[in-house]
Automatic annotation (TrEMBL):
Record keywords: Kinase, Transferase
Family: Belongs to the polyphosphate kinase 2 (PPK2) family. Class I subfamily.
Lineage per the UniProt record: Bacteria, Pseudomonadati, Rhodothermota, Rhodothermia, Rhodothermales
Origin species: Rubricoccus marinus
Name of the protein in its database record: Polyphosphate kinase
One BP annotation, GO: polyphosphate metabolic process
One Pfam family of this chain: PPK2
């Protein structure tokens, strides 16, 4: 699979309306499922090497509009990996204690430690998305936050954490389909939040906020990918490919033994 078309180059002008939300790259469902399975096998081995090496870490950030598929993507891509080596964190409305600190305080403490894969379901980007759209911070504050975010992610990178950020890109029509589905199925009622309709009414403002955030914060150390998310098989496969490529670039290695294996022949163990 070719991940290059979805990566945002540093300083690139982003026009989300011009970017597709439904892509297959000529692959049918069977092929996409095969790719996902192959990547899952590779990720399992890479995660074991990362955990054993315990020198690097990987942070995968998911952002999307409501019904964009963050939970489902996390389940399909990271579900097959040993849960001991993966930490998933969902960022909700800040608590009073979190609001009493700088906006990155609650995020930094959940960054993955050496040997781990961390997954953020929403993230510090909420502070330049929903906060910006609703005017909960001044324009000057928002402008400063772009720089703070870039510096924060550079700090993580310098400490051995590779950062990959993925926007799951859907259309407004597709979001409507998913929200309607939540209303029509009793087993999906729990996922419906009337507040989502208020946010949906601000779709244009959110797209503008996303475009600015993507353009201002996609860096060599922490690139953004805009992944078409309406074809869910493609979405899962391409995200797994992005994660696999990131780990392969990190190239974690099993540590050398601290003892002489030849000094312990199997027949000597009783």
């Amino acid at each position: 699979m070719d991940t290059a078309p979805f990566r945002i180059a540093p300083g690139e002008t982003v026009d989300l309306a011009a970017r597709p939300t439904d892509v297959s790259q000529g692959l049918d469902d069977d092929a996409l499922e095969a790719i996902l399975a192959s990547n899952a096998e590779a990720l399992e081995e890479l995660q074991e090497r990362l955990y054993a090496e315990s020198k690097q870490s990987l942070l995968v950030v998911f952002q999307a509009m409501d019904a964009g598929g963050k939970d489902s993507t996390t389940r399909h891509v990271f579900g097959p990996i040993n849960p001991q080596g993966v930490r998933v964190w969902s960022f909700k409305k800040p608590t009073p204690i979190e609001l009493s600190h700088d906006f990155l305080w609650r995020v930094h403490k959940h960054a993955p430690g050496a040997g781990y894969i961390g997954v953020f379901n929403r993230s510090h980007y909420e502070d330049v998305l929903i906060v910006k759209v609703h005017g909960w911070a001044s324009g000057e504050t928002i402008e400063a936050r772009y720089d703070h975010i870039v510096n924060f992610e550079r700090l993580l990178a310098s400490g051995g954490t590779k950062v990959v950020k993925i926007m799951l890109h859907i259309s407004k029509d597709y979001q409507k389909e998913r929200l309607v589905r939540r209303l029509e199925r009793e087993d999906k009622h729990w996922k419906f939040n009337p507040e989502d309709l208020k946010e949906r009414a601000l779709w244009g403002d959110y797209m503008a906020a996303f475009e600015t955030a993507l353009a201002r914060t996609s860096t060599p150390e922490a690139p953004w990918y805009v992944v078409p998310a309406e074809n869910r098989d493609f979405r899962n496969a391409i995200v797994s490919q992005i994660v696999r490529e990131a780990l392969e670039e990190m190239d974690p290695q099993f540590p050398a033994p601290t003892f002489d294996p030849e000094a312990f022949p199997p027949e000597a163990i009783v």
